[in-house]
Amino acid sequence: MAELTTASASTESHATSLGLSNEKLGMWTLLGSECLFFGALISAYLVYYGRYNGVPEVSPALYDIPFTSVSTFVLLMSSLGMVLALSAIQRGDDRGFRIWILATAMMGTVFLSGQIYEFTVFVNEGMKLDTSPFASSFYVLTSFHGVHVTVGVLMLVTLWARSMTGRLTQTNSEVVENIGLYWHFVDIVWIVIFTAIYLIPWEQATL
Amino acid sequence: MTAVPAEAPTPGLKVLRRPKATTGLWSWVTTTDHKKIGIMYFIATMFFFVVAGLEALALRVQLALPENDFLSPDVYNQLYTMHGVTMVFFVGIPLGATFFNYIMPLQIGARDVAFPRLNAFSFWVFCAAGIFMYSGVILGGLPDGGWFNYAPLSAPVGPDVSGYTLGGGSAELANQIHTGRMLMYSVGLQIAGIATLASAVNFIVTILNLRAPGMTLMRMPVFVWMTLVVAFLLLFAIPVIGIALWQLMFEVRFGAIFFAPSGGGDPMLWEHMFWLFGHPEVYILILPAFGIISEIIPTFSRKPIFGYTAMIFAGVAIGFLGWGVWAHHMFAAGMGPVANTAFSLTTMFIAVPTGVKIFNWIGTMWGGKIRLATPMLFAVGAVAMFTIGGLSGVMHSVVPSNYQQTDTYFVVAHFHYVLFGGLVFGAIGGVYYWYPKVTGRLMNETLGKVNFWTLLVGFNITFGLMHFLGMWGMPRRIDTYYAGFGWETLNQIITGGAFLIAFSVLLLVINIAMSLKRGEAAGDDPWDARTLEWMTTSPPAHYNFREVPQVSARDELWHRKHAVSESGDYVRVPAGGSGDVVVHEDDEADIHMPDPSFFPALSAVGLPIMGWALFTGGITMVVTLAVGAVITVGALFAWAFEPSAEEGH
Q1: Which residues of chain A neighbour B235 with C-beta distances below 8 Å?
Q2: Looking at this predicted complex, what is its ipTM?
């Protein structure tokens, strides 16, 4: 607190009260809010666990756990890509940054493709949005996460394009760190979702 | 979303030039100045306040006589729903944002908020949400399920609609109209939620990061503290209702099953999610007023606030405890004795920090040199009226008593005492208090006092008598009633009281409008106040402070106006002789302020377009959704790549 310095509205290159840039503090604040978004969706899914509306075929029995585990692994590895990309740009290694930021975006895209494939298979097997509360809460939860990954991939590709045109370099690399925070959050929340959806044992008896 | 640090302008993205206007319409549309945005918030909020007030008047006219047919049941349902929705989401929340926007940055000695363009975005999205919500008037009707829109009211009408006027007996038409109304509710409030969430992030970062040198957390004015608590409540409460609305949207539009019991959904899930937002929302509405009252009372008692630390901790405690009481709105829903008992206890408990605040306000006034100017009248009125509402709230926390009172006019009386008596009185006090800062002119005192007393009398006639109606068994939300229950006389008097309130609000509007030109010149510090906003000019320059103030005490301005005498007393320093010689004044050209931008307003335009898309179907829906998304996302990209201020400006 002793280091309070002049605060100003034009954000860059001015010290702030907490010593943390406004953008980074804003991102952390937003992520705090995101926890509640996903918390509400996960709660709804757990409340409707086992509500099959007389269609017991549409149950967690449909889940292909090995397949989703692989796409989950890819998504988690993308966090490593993000870390390496950030580290590269902070060192001034633009080439390394571009490689790793694209790799991260690619891994995000692989995860999204896996999700689309999974949805297609489920719909073909009779699990539709309006089948049961179980199905509704599954789709709304996982697609909400999918939208977050999509937004993340868009931002990563934008970073890559900015770097290619020379507008994103070591000096203004904090934006990479902030988007990285978002990306790691989306990964971490998937660990919770994956555990809640795929790893909790289900029982036929709870019809 | 993520602000990209400023950099060289991108030639390829110069579709819209940097706006240059400093006056006229475009200067307001493109502004990023927190003061201009605050004024726009105020005007929009007053507009919605009048709209929701007129809706309430129509309801009162309908209820003045038994078996009245002034409003049809269908219109009545829409009007009482929109009265609640408008007052909570389009008056209560933005009224907080009005004061936060204008006053909070001044009080912490900042030159603007942390994200000026995000601030403009919040305002325009809020406007877009209001327009979207009321576009229901031409799209098959306004939401009609009450402001908390329980299932099965939100569920499909069902095959048997005989005797139901909606759709004239056709089940298909009835369902279409009903779906449209529920979509209006779910999508409109989601858009409003985006605005609120963005402003919550903005205010938190501003308060934590943009304080003037020396402005430690425990030197912040109480109003700033309450802003911080409200912003955190919004940050965590909006997502919960956001998801409930998101699920409702999928339910009514795309056939998902969440809340409708006919489809196998659980109406209790909606109730829990709604009130897990809805109860913190009560504090979101009232804490800004608590902050305003805590500024007015010390100034007009000429004393520092009594128990500053206790005041802050009580506010923060309300912020935490507010999360543990939501189910007291659902005692009658059948949660069982354990849950009812637990929530009954937490509800009684939350009265404690609220009581601390009330005692501290009284302690502040005690022994002070009280001036009963209009802002003080409204502040004291708010404390008194809120206390009455708080006491009936404690009555509600007792479950057996709650069973008797729930869904009667007693509840209507209770929440109008806390929200009208607390929030509206406090906010009008804030308007009288800060009007001279915003406009440079004082509001008319005589008119102000008439305004206060008519409002106080009208308010107590209207809502005080509703306690009795409720105890006599009149249910809320009924469009009419039969004669012979003994409700006729009270209902007539209450309707008269409602018109007195309307008259008083008219006086307020007249006072605001007339004082703009005819008000007495105010000077920088007309109330002999204590906080930083009164150190700068009235109205403040767009950069707020020529020199960012160096803060060395709580109530900084008061300390600058007083010095310690030889006997140890505080003595008033003659004007201009305060000794704090200005060492350095920033040259105006050296003050860097964010430039105006088209993109916040433009990005708000796409959201209602995407909302309206859901009212169509098939390829039209996809195309309209895409158009809205392109506008919003395109504007967000352009915004992200536009530096917040031009080079060398």
Answers
A1: 29, 32-33
A2: 0.91
